[in-house]
Each structure stands twice: as C-alpha cells, then as structure tokens.
Amino acid sequence: MSEVLVVDDAENCREPLVRLLRLMGYEVSSAASGLEALACVRQHRPDAILLDLMMPEMDGVSFLRVLRASEAWRDVPVIVVSAISDGAMLHEASDLGITRMLLKSRFTGDDLLDCLREVCGSAA
C-alpha cells in the first residue's frame, strides 16, 4: 500500500486531504509543521509527501532543504499544495526539486489523485 505524508499547519486543509486519501486506499500520516514532518519521515519513509509552504516553526522550503540533503530521503516525491502561486518561496521550492505543484484554491480531488498515481502508483 502506498504511504502519503500530508504536511499542512491548517487543520481545515490537512484533514480533508487525509480523509480523501484514506478513502482512496492510501495509508496516510499527517503533520502540522515541517518539524513534525521530519519526525514522521524519520520514523517511516513515505512514498510521497503533500507539502504546504507557509507554516510556523519550520516552513515547507526549510523542510525541503533538510529532506533533499539526506541521501535516504532526497528522492521522495514532493507535491506542493499551497496558496502561493508565485514568488521567491515557490521558486526556491522548485529549485529544491518538487515533483508537482497544486494551487489550493484550484485543484480537485481527481487532480490530486492523478498526481499521486503518477508519483507512487495506485493506492494498493
């Protein structure tokens, strides 16, 4: 079963994604910050990460820097799910090797599932 880590400080954004992915058969864990996400990744390497960029404590770009610096995690696919559609933070995330970008206000559940199927296959 494919495992996905959902990282977003906003519970009203994070929990619907968690529920949708579980309904689609993915094993899902979640984190409310980059620091929490690092703890999750250290415990168990996910097949893909859905990552918000704007978070307290450790933002998405800082999390990506740590992830990409690690030989064990540098190839984990990261799909940025953010309200940021342009700017330095998004450009830096792109430079660090994100797999895809979904704009929070514009993607559908099908868009998300298509992205996940591309990067880690079907849920089963």
| Overall pLDDT metric | 91
Fourth-level CATH superfamily = Response regulator
What is the CATH C level class, in words?
A: Alpha Beta
H/E order of the elements?
EHEHEHEHEH
**Total domain units:** 1
Would you identify the CATH architecture?
3-Layer(aba) Sandwich
Number of H/I helices: 5
> Strand content of the residues, in percent?
15-25%
- State the distance separating the first and last CA atoms: 5 Å
For the largest beta sheet, what order do the strands appear in spatially? 2-1-3-4-5
Sheet of most strands: 5 strands, parallel
Shape descriptor: globular
User: Which class of secondary structure composition applies to the elements?
Assistant: alpha/beta
Q: In words, what does this structure look like?
A:
The chain is an alpha/beta fold. It has a single domain, classed as Response regulator (Rossmann fold, 3-Layer(aba) Sandwich), CATH 3.40.50.2300. The protein has five helices and five strands. The protein is globular and about 35 Å long.
Blueprint of the fold:
Layout: E1 3-7, H1 11-23, E2 27-31, H2 34-43, E3 48-51, H3 60-69, E4 78-82, H4 88-95, E5 100-103, H5 109-120
Parallel strand pairs: 1-2, 1-3, 3-4, 4-5
Helix pairs in contact: 2-3
Quick structural overview:
The protein is 43% helix and 19% strand.
Structure keywords:
single chain; Rossmann fold; 5 helices; 124 residues; globular; 43% helix; alpha/beta
